[in-house]
Amino acid sequence: MSSLATRSAQAVRQASRRSTRSATPRLVAQPAGTKAYSLLARSAVLSANSASRQPSVTGVRGVKTLDFAGTKEDVYERSDWPVAKLQEYFKNDTLALIGYGSQGHGQGLNARDNGLNVIVGVRKDGESWKQAMEDGWVPGETLFPIEEAIKKGTIIMNLLSDAAQSQTWPQLAPLITKGKTLYFSHGFSVVFKEDTKVIPPKDVDVILVAPKGSGRTVRTLFKEGRGINSSIAVWQDVTGKAKEKAVALGVGVGSGYLYETTFEKEVYSDLYGERGVLMGGIQGMFLAQYKVLRANGHSPSEAFNETVEEATQSLFPLIGQKGMDYMYNACSTTARRGALDWAPIFEKANLPVFEKLYESVKNGTETRKSLEFNGRKTYREDLAKELKEIDDQEIWRAGKTVRSLRPDYKPEA
Ligand SMILES: NC(=O)c1ccc[n+]([C@@H]2O[C@H](COP(=O)([O-])OP(=O)(O)OC[C@H]3O[C@@H](n4cnc5c(N)ncnc54)[C@H](OP(=O)(O)O)[C@@H]3O)[C@@H](O)[C@H]2O)c1
Question: Which stretches make up the KARI C-terminal knotted domain (predicted)?
């Protein structure tokens, strides 16, 4: 149990305010790609290309217009919302954070550290209730059963699992009364309303702040004085202030930069991305490459190293730092030639799969599957079984031994 849990509510609030001051995130406004990287610096031609790719930035008070590969987009930033302004803006509000999973934890603690008035609503004595108490939320003061928290809140942040948002909606909807604001971190529930039955009342603002990462990252980046990128959107603007509120809340929960989108685009891109390259696609690609190596007599360690270890430890971080061309440039001429030849072949083979995936997202098939699976009573056990099947695959068993040889290895729990 953390030491926070043993403090009184007042001490927790004071600690929050203290840590707000000391950990007030400083904006590190350093656009990626502003420095020529060393490999390219050696090549006059490539350096010239690199210079022409410098991001063009124009800004008016915290709103930057950035040129994203030829398309101009507005990006909102934290610097326009210093902590004092945030606290003043939300001085009459109570943020009722419903659900305390990954996002509830990250967003809730960040908003509390920003000195905002936050309460948590979860099922009494469930896993989340215990977790919230460990993080210093106090039953009867800042921690309540869900319905009670909604009644007390002015901004209702629905951070239940997407399936739970749908299941609980009939009980929760009547409590979301005129004047309150309804907040989501995913467009899922309202965009796919035919399936989820989540139809917000007509007299409340409905907004979205969707951090582009896990709630744990939302928290760690905030504590490091940085901030996660988030999408913001408005579904319903009753007060005329919905967008401003979304930006302010985005900053309040720990975002550094906020990109404007719509609920539809947020949910389509998110469901598509995680099924594709981010999770489903990468597992499928790793496995296919590994299987062919094994079928051709390569040892598990060789197949793993050549498929996963080199990717995650050496090459993918280079893409993250400075782009695909930088990674190509950092590799041998032999590797580069082959990769340049094979990339379009993979693109052609994968394009129809991605088109099929996007359609499956857009027509709601993916939503219905997710609601069915995650709405089962046995969903935790069913998920654990499927994840164990992955963990038992030879590729990932081989990976455990490969990881144990890393210089910084710590035994896995
Ligand atoms: N995780 C991410 O990386 C991520 C990123 C961006 C946006 N989002 C979005 O943020 C929202 C929250 O996601 P999350 O991953 O933080 O949450 P999650 O872990 O999927 O959901 C956990 C919460 O839902 C509660 N819950 C589950 N079933 C319930 C039920 N039948 N009745 C009442 N409570 C129930 C759990 O409470 P108990 O402990 O009591 O079961 C827990 O507090 C979602 O809309 C998600 O799409 C997530």
Answer: 262-409
